[in-house]
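Question (not urgent): is this output format expected?
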Amino acid sequence: MLPVIKYPVLEVYIKDILFVVFLLCFIAQLYYLIANHNRLARYKPQNDTPVGQLPVSVIIAARNEYANLKHNLPLILDQDYPEYEVIVVNDCSFDHTDELLNIYEKQYPKLRIVTIEEHPRFKTGKKFALTLGIKAARYEHLLFTDADCEPTSSHWISRMASKFKGDVSIVLGYSPYQRSRGLLNLFARFETLKTAINYLSAALSGDAYMGIGRNLAYTKTLFFKNKGFAAHMHILSGDDDLFVNQNATPANLDIEIHPDAHTQSEVKPTLRSYYRQKKRHMGVGKLYKSKHRRFLSFDALSGFVYYGLFIYLLTIQLEPLLILGLYLFRLILQVVIYNKVFTKLRCADLIWWLPIFDFVYYLYLNIFGLIGTFTKTKQWK
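Got this back:
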């Protein structure tokens, strides 16, 4: 039996390297908090309800959304706004959506229906449906949401449309999940909130990289000037984030985060359905601009390594008081900054879950980021 040879100097050297990597990740995480997320913490939404002036076309692409449309569509059709239309693109539905829309069309003069029929050799997708809706729109200013979303107030259109001032042609909104019981609901709400903090803070810094189709507005001119979804029409997902990623500039974009301007939806009922949804969403991240991929990847990787090394260095008892002190410093800074944001976005209850879900969030980002790299989306519903 060969003797075991130990290299104590090498072990110390490796530990020192790991400690330095931990410090670098710690500094990187402070940068994202202070230089980016703090922008949203300082941002003050307009409190007074704006008076609607611009005509607006609300566009919803729906495939087999009978139950959601039955509940949510009247809330959109009863908005307190002087001049708007609601275009529902019925994309090859076979669940009585057409019957419901025909009934609503007689009750609500503002409702217009665009119907896409199933074709044996031509497969449609959400981008095709939205393109038809945009072409059918009477008005220049377009507001988008999904069939499973409901506005949180009757002033949703007013607040989103009021941001179209000067050169602004894109408005990013916020769309949280509804609060209910269960850990899946808690984490889904937390993940949505953290995603919003990232993309809204980036927008405030003048470098927007995405928006969400559940609450997004832009102009018809911008859409056709930049050839719509042509650059990524072959990708079924990305009608919202890829469009914003390619067309947003510091001058043409604004955000609206007032609670009256939110649209909310329910979390997927099972872990499996939630997984499918997130896998589809993560699949388009690899098509972002290079600088945005680097920015997001560095945040995800530095956060993951930070937590991994925090646990490991504590396990081997390497400077435990210093390691714990740095962890608590970052956590306290997070609480100070995030508490303002969580309160503004009506998710204050999630601040208590920050120490647990922040770690899970970075684990989630790296796992789904890796899955998304090899994922090809085959259907939008």
